[in-house]
Design goal:
6% strand; 13 helices; binds tryptophan; mainly alpha; three-stranded parallel β-sheet; 336 residues
């Protein structure tokens, strides 16, 4: 999806919840590509702190995690001057549009969201209207920027589809108002699997801490986790069906070094899994080093984080107010 430089840039938007540190899987599958995307697209990245409230969170934790997630986004070096990096709750227009979109969302279609069904089973003692309404707020996040593309994982695909339906419905009633967003499929990120069960995706919510690597794990921890990664008994580094553990390590190694599978196989011919695991761990440490260095730098400067949040919110407000006003007018709210 290379773009002609003459044309105005297309807009890509994504938000990320602050409640857990992204994994190596999130990094290689998504975040790493954001930096590349930020060169070719007009990018808007946010911390979805309002979405985090849909399940019970400790207030002091949420405050801390929101700053940390913002610091992590800033550490990606996305060029906060050209792009917009913001905290969702600092931009009140999102919530306002969300209310309006509620009135153009069918109860039935919202009830079909599989993530709502899963989460309400998981948090059966606290199934709130907010949890139910979460995809509508997400639709507001997307539509309020007139976003062209949204990079989404499979778990968010249905929500993006809902946002598209709401946009089309609204446009159908009131005339062209919202850009109908598409999933972003420009750069295909890698799918990284759990180090303990390589048939399951690496997930930050995995109860086994050895199953996933956080982007902020220290080199020691990274080495330990890769050392205990599940493999097979063949003791031969090759990419093949049935060798899920080794395939996963080869994918990770390939993403971090740029080497293809054939090259990796020949480099490790005759060597054992122990050597390979160490090499993968070292490649991951190197891959994450610049991000971690930037992060440590940013997180140490709380005033700078606040300043960036403020600037991001101002820019976001400017862009989003245009859409909100348009919508308010179209639905018949008297603007005085
Ligand atoms: N719901 C997304 C998640 O949990 C986060 C999110 C909120 C989002 N608003 C968004 C993602 C808008 C993309 C676009 O991962």
């Amino acid at each position: 999806m290379e773009q002609n430089v003459q044309e105005p840039k297309q807009r890509v938007l994504s938000l990320i919840q602050p409640t857990s540190v992204p994994t190596l899987g999130n990094y290689l599958g998504a975040l790493k590509n954001w930096k590349k995307m930020a060169r070719d697209y007009d990018c808007i990245f946010g911390v979805a702190d309002l979405h985090a409230l849909t399940i019970r969170v400790e207030p002091s934790m949420l405050r801390k995690q929101t700053q940390e997630m913002l610091a992590l986004l800033l550490a990606l070096d996305l060029d906060a001057e050209k792009n917009i990096v913001f905290v969702q709750s600092h931009v009140h227009t999102h919530s306002e549009l969300s209310w309006l979109l509620n009135c153009y969302t069918q109860f039935g279609e919202a009830s079909r969201m599989t993530q709502f069904k899963d989460k309400s089973r998981k948090h059966a003692d606290n199934v709130t209207v907010g949890l139910f309404d979460y995809p509508v707020l997400m639709a507001a996040d997307i539509l309020i920027y007139q976003s062209n593309y949204v990079p989404v994982g499979v778990d968010q695909k249905q929500h993006l589809e809902l946002a598209r339906n709401i946009a089309e419905r609204f446009n159908g009633i009131y005339g062209q108002t919202f850009t109908v967003p598409e999933p972003f499929i420009g750069t295909k990120g890698a799918k990284v699997m759990s180090l303990q069960d390589p048939t399951a995706k690496m997930s930050k919510s995995d109860p086994n801490p050895k199953a996933s690597v956080s982007v902020l794990d220290s080199p020691d921890v990274i080495v330990k986790k890769f050392k205990s990664a599940v493999t097979d008994s063949e003791a031969c580094v090759r990419y093949a069906e049935g060798k899920d553990g080794i395939n996963n390590l080869m994918t990770i190694y390939s993403c971090c070094t740029g080497l293809d599978y054939a090259q990796i196989e020949s480099d490790f011919a005759g060597k054992g899994y122990g050597d390979f695991k160490m090499a993968v761990a070292e490649a991951v440490i190197e891959e994450l080093r610049p991000l971690q260095e930037n992060y440590n730098h940013v997180i140490a400067d709380k005033a700078c984080i606040s300043d960036c949040a403020k600037k991001g919110a101002e820019k976001a407000l400017y862009v989003t107010q245009k859409t909100l006003r348009k919508v308010q007018k179209k639905v018949g709210l008297w603007q005085g």
